[in-house]
Specification:
Layout lengths: L4 E3 H11 L4 E5 L5 H8 L5 E4 L3 H15 L3 E5 L1 H7 L1 H9 L4 E7 L15 H5 L3 E5 L6 H14 L3 E7 H5 L1 E3 L21 H14 L3 E5 L6 H14 L2 E4 L6 E3 L7 E2 L4 H8 L4 E5 L23 E5 L5 H12 L25 H11 L4 E6 L1 H10 L6 E4 L9 H11 L5 E6 H4 L5 H8 L3 E7 L4 H9 L7 H6 L9 H7 L4 E4 L2 H13 L4 E6 L1
Parallel strand pairs: 2-3, 2-4, 4-5, 5-7, 6-7, 9-10, 9-13, 10-12, 13-14, 15-16, 15-17, 17-18, 18-20, 19-20
Antiparallel strand pairs: 1-8, 11-16
């Protein structure tokens, strides 16, 4: 019997399937056509087209946050990868496994420095690791190594494959000879028990002067319940990191709010505490440097790490709670059930939107939160909502919310997804609406339309500019002309409607959730 031969592109896809990849978010070009053809012969991988690379990388991030497995992107050369770097930065900060497959010129054409030639590996290593295929024989091993690396960090890995190596034929690798650990997934290193015991000793000493800051898998339901037990016993305060990648919320979990964004408020929460225990998060630092304020938000001598990012923070918290003898949390620690709607005739503000969305949230929803106007009030109000999962912008590069919602909906098609999105940041990746329509995903997009870069005006005020001149006003305004989100959504194939009051928003939101496919609601603030 003749030995089966396959192209390099087919070998890459076969290796990806063996490693558990099931979705490829793609915006390919000329040098990726063999890979596009290989997708036709790979029924186990779903191809999702994004109209801009930052949609693809953000969607891969959202998919991986929900599944814990890497999604693949397919991007065109260095400029295509560069277009997707903002959301790859967010994925890196969220410790999300994402694997980018990037084509390159044929190996024999590279020396001629054609117009689209660039140092792809240099771009890739700004957000993670890079693997460059040197020949057809490397493809199977390099693909599996890139996927493993993304899960091991976990983080972003980029596989660079010249077009000729995608087309070259070689013998197929028998499935039986592949690694036993084929379905790669997120793995967490166990925390040393000695470290847990040392933290327990310090908590006993500090008592109510303790703060626990949770991130990563400390924000699972079990992790938060263990933290609630510790807080009920000791009086410790609980916060999540300011922008958690994935946080379970509602349905009787402890009322854990995010550490404040502005450094003054964060320092007030942490500065006078004797002990700040970090579980699954990085040390809290100010997002930006401000004269007269420290970059480190907690006094260094008070900091203790229970679990670092990538370590098993959930199990460490459970072990810590048992060591302390913490029983089930008291009712005062768990969040009270969310109240009803605000006054139905009340205008929409950040506060009324947050309360309304929390009150209307269906069971097991996923909420992609981007933007401060409604995002912070919603997160606080949602502590007592139905059980749901919140995804926030961990890296701070805007344009994440809509693509992450798209990826989450593809990862969990049976769960309702809501994108709570500010208008300015939504415009960075509005093309995600087209992919939502094409894939017919159940995403309800809520656009907080104040037609202003409000965060920039806040920062201008912080710099002492209380009265804006004409240029500062123009550079922070989106009102001339106003973006018509209903018309924009319709152009991408997504039905939309506008809400100006609590009653209108609650009715529109409940109708959208009850319907199939994507919907958009412009919330006039």
């Amino acid at each position: 019997m003749a030995e089966e031969t396959v192209t390099g592109a087919e070998a890459l896809m076969a290796a990806a399937v063996q490693k558990g990849v099931r979705v490829c978010f793609a915006n390919p070009g000329t040098t990726e056509m063999p890979l596009v053809a290989a997708l036709d012969r790979t029924p186990d991988v779903r191809g999702v087209l994004g109209l801009q690379e930052n949609v693809c990388t953000g969607a891969a991030d959202g998919y991986a946050r929900i599944t814990g497995r890497a999604a693949m992107t397919l991007l065109h050369l260095g400029p295509g990868l560069a277009n997707g770097l903002a959301n790859l930065h967010n994925a890196r900060r969220a410790h999300t496994p994402v694997v980018n497959v990037v084509g390159d010129h044929t190996s024999w054409h590279l020396p001629y420095d054609a117009p689209l030639t660039s140092d792809i590996a240099a771009l890739a290593t700004t957000v993670g690791s890079a693997f460059t295929v040197a020949g057809r024989e490397d493809i199977d091993a390099a693909t599996r190594a890139a996927i493993d690396d993304a899960h091991r960090r976990p983080g972003v890995a980029t596989l660079i494959v010249p077009a000729d190596h995608q087309q070259d034929l070689a013998a197929a690798v028998p499935v039986a000879s592949r690694s036993a650990a084929e379905s790669a997934g997120r793995r967490h290193a166990r925390v040393d028990s000695g470290r847990v015991k040392e933290v327990a000793t310090r908590i006993r000493s500090a008592g109510a002067s303790t703060v626990l800051i949770l991130g990563g898998d400390a924000l699972t339901r079990r992790g938060q319940q263990a933290a609630g037990r510790i807080a009920a016993l000791t009086g410790a305060a609980l916060f999540s990191e300011t922008f958690p990648a994935v946080a379970e919320r509602g349905a009787g979990l402890p009322a854990i709010d995010r550490l404040p964004y502005f450094p003054e408020a964060a320092i007030a929460a942490l500065g006078d505490r004797d002990l700040v225990v970090i579980a699954g998060a990085e040390e809290p630092v100010a997002y930006f440097g401000y004269a007269g304020l420290p970059s480190r938000l907690a006094r260094p001598e008070t900091l203790r790490s229970l679990a670092r990012p990538g370590e098993d923070a959930e199990e460490a918290l459970l072990e810590l709670a048992d060591l302390l003898g913490a029983a089930e949390p008291a009712d005062s620690i768990t969040a009270p059930k969310a109240g009803g709607l605000p006054d139905p005739d009340a205008p929409l503000t950040g506060a009324t939107v947050g309360q309304t969305v929390a009150a209307c949230l269906p069971e097991d929803a996923i909420v992609s939160v981007e933007g401060g106007t409604c995002g912070y009030p919603f997160y606080t109000a949602s502590a007592g909502a139905s059980a749901h999962t919140a995804l926030t912008n961990t890296g701070g590069a805007i344009g994440q919310g809509l693509p992450v919602a798209l990826g989450a909906a593809i990862a969990a098609p049976d769960r309702p997804v809501i994108a709570l999105q500010s208008d300015g940041s939504g415009l960075y990746t509005a093309q995600a609406l087209w992919s939502m329509s094409r894939e017919n995903v159940n995403v309800t997009v809520l656009i907080a339309a104040n037609h202003t870069y409000n965060v920039l005006r806040t920062e201008l005020n912080r710099h002492g500019e209380s009265a804006f001149g004409p240029k500062a006003a123009a550079l922070t305004s989106l009102s001339d002309p106003r973006v018509d989100w209903i018309a924009l959504a319709a152009g991408y194939g997504v039905p939309g409607r506008r809400a100006t009051t609590v009653a209108e928003l609650s009715q529109a939101l409940q109708a959208a959730i009850a319907s199939d496919g994507p919907h958009l609601i412009e919330m006039s603030l």
